[in-house]
Amino acid sequence: MSDVKNEAWQYTTRGRLSTTIQLTQRPYPTYGEEDIVVEIRAAAVNPVEEQIAQLPDLMLRLGGAPPMGTPFIPSQDFSGVVHAAGLKSPWKVGDEVCGLKLDLSGEGTLQRYLRVPPSIPVIRKPSSLSFTEAAAMPLVYQTVYTALVSYGRLPFEPSPEDTGKRSVLILGGSSGTGSVAVMMAKQMGCKVVASCSGKNADFVKSLGADEIIDYRTEHVAEKAIASEHAPYAVVFDCVGGKDLIPYLNRLVLSDPKAPKLGIFVTIVGDKTDPDVLGGSVSNLTYPSQVLRHIRGALTDLLPNWLPCKSWIAGKRYACISLDQKTSYLDTIPVFLQRGGKVIIDSTFPFAEAKEAFAKLESSRAVGKVVVEFA
Ligand SMILES: NC(=O)c1ccc[n+]([C@@H]2O[C@H](COP(=O)([O-])OP(=O)(O)OC[C@H]3O[C@@H](n4cnc5c(N)ncnc54)[C@H](OP(=O)(O)O)[C@@H]3O)[C@@H](O)[C@H]2O)c1
């Protein structure tokens, strides 16, 4: 395969990826007997690539990344066709696949030929999806599944008795993650209240939201608490910041008949700077988040008869990063069969990857930004 030309967008300096990435020639990847090499057809871009590109050297090294200055290829979501397969791989040449290569190795998916080891979650591309749509799903879908099903404990397959009884508040309903969350929560039989700006209200309603809060003109916490759907089995935060934290007690459900439900799950955390890495890593730098985790855990651990319980324990809270699990990706076809859609904000040809990052950096994308490989 040494005669097959590889090509990648990579950076060697910190900064906005719309300005730092450079197109370079790369060797075709060497691969082991359990690996595959995927000829990439599409790669979605995500805010986390921008945040990784701003990480201090110490954090990069702790995460196993090469030091800044070593060429780093961004992006993690991919779809494509298996171009080469190791002898022990379950995949064969020609298989159409999609997956998520979420690591700090610097071998991201903005390259024409990508080595994919068996540790990376990969599924067969759902036949109803184009390569562009299939590349837009893995990261946001696994994130939402982790938040609503794993941490939120909402049943992915709800029983008829569950339907209509629970409600979910989604902060950032028009975002890549929030839009999938609105659809998944609705499919799971929940009432959905979502925040977004007025210009995106009709779009978020069309995904299934029962009630919209315009974050630009309304007080999100007060409106959410006043809703007929409050309190919420899950508050899912795709925005970040601390505005809603003082209201946790009134937002998050406490129901003796459903003692496992009731949690505030954030994938961002207290930080508000879009260039700073959020999720579970931010628990290292925001001790108040850790304290909230602990107080929430005490709700489960302490007996109800303890007089000081309400003073020590708090509502369940988790600042999380997605779980990378093939079993989560395996549920995408069910999500699609139930009417789930892939929301694409915009697509850019491979040669215009810088423009794709510029769109992402605007923080105004509605759904996913995807780079298509010709
Ligand atoms: N921890 C994890 O595992 C994990 C996984 C995925 C993503 N994330 C993080 O989650 C965040 C969201 O990611 P994403 O890909 O979903 O973002 P995105 O699609 O780039 O978000 C852009 C959208 O957010 C909306 N928005 C901006 N500010 C808002 C606010 N205050 N309230 C409500 N909506 C607002 C914008 O709508 P308007 O134009 O109307 O403002 C726009 O539609 C990022 O910080 C990302 O790094 C974390």
UniProtKB/TrEMBL annotation:
Family matches, as Gene3D superfamilies: Medium-chain alcohol dehydrogenases, catalytic domain, NAD(P)-binding Rossmann-like Domain
Q: Which SMART domains does its entry note?
A: PKS_ER
Q: Which residues form the signal peptide?
A: none
Example GO molecular function term? oxidoreductase activity
Regions crossing the membrane: none
Q: Which InterPro entries match?
A: ADH-like_N (IPR013154), ER (IPR020843), GroES-like_sf (IPR011032), NAD(P)-bd_dom_sf (IPR036291), YIM1/Zinc_Alcohol_DH_Fams (IPR050700)
Example GO CC term: the record gives: mitochondrion
Where is the Enoyl reductase (ER) domain positioned along the sequence?
16-371
The name under which this protein is listed is: Enoyl reductase (ER) domain-containing protein
User: Which organism is this entry from?
Assistant: Naematelia encephala
Q: What is the lineage of its organism?
A: Eukaryota, Fungi, Dikarya, Basidiomycota, Agaricomycotina
